[in-house]
């Protein structure tokens, strides 16, 4: 992640390959010399991902284990269920990830955080252009951030990371608003990143969780 800060709030879940098996590490901010448990994944449930438009860039994983002993999501974190275009309850927003800090760089071993701002579809189309910006109604949104060290942006390895926003109404409440999807390079001036809109897929999420 480019222009990031030390991690503040998150219960990280890292998915990666170990000897060709896909496993999950839960609740760890630093994975250097990690010697804790690996959780096998029994199912990866993906929506109808479009490789051309990148729409429906979302999936759920099912761990091949019980909940016993696995760190739980903090009670002050919830899914965003109100459409972004009508929500007035969102304040400061953050992205998280283990991605590289420069284009084509190496992934980091410590979870990073970046302060980022939501922008409108019109601003996104102006900055990214009609071919890079997400299509209207695709269940995606754009965001860009600037910090003391310059532009804040996701990078390679951050995809799938969470996009959290703080609630204005509840001082200690955060909502999972989005999921890091794609962008044009890393930290390019005036180039926002594109994120999956969780609220647009909430019915799909609920259906799978209940099934």
Offer a few descriptive terms.
12 strands, 6-stranded antiparallel barrel, globular, 211 residues, 4-stranded antiparallel beta sheet
What does this structure look like?
With 211 residues, this protein is mainly beta. The protein has 2 helices and 12 strands, in the order βββββββαβββββα. The strands form 2 sheets. Strands 6-7-8-12-11-10 form a 6-stranded antiparallel β-barrel. Strands 1-2-3-4 form a 4-stranded antiparallel beta sheet, with no helix packed on it. The chain is globular and about 45 Å long.
Strand tally is 12
**N-to-C terminal Cα separation, in Å?**
35 Å
Q: What topology, given as strand order, has the largest sheet? A: 6-7-8-12-11-10
Strand content: 35-45%
**Count of separate DSSP helical elements:** 2
Question: Radius of gyration, rounded?
Answer: 17 Å
Judged by helices, strands and strand pairing, the structural class is mainly beta
Major sheet, described briefly? 6 strands, antiparallel, barrel
Which term fits the overall shape? globular
Low-confidence stretches: 5-13
Helix amount, in percent? Answer: under 10%
Q: Output the helix-strand order.
A: EEEEEEEHEEEEEH
If you average the pLDDT, what whole number results? 81
Quick overview of this protein structure:
Helices cover about 10% and strands about 35% of the residues. By secondary structure, it is mostly beta strands.
Topology:
Elements lengths: L12 E6 L2 E6 L12 E8 L12 E5 L13 E3 L10 E8 L14 E8 L1 H8 L11 E8 L2 E3 L9 E6 L6 E9 L10 E5 L4 H9 L1
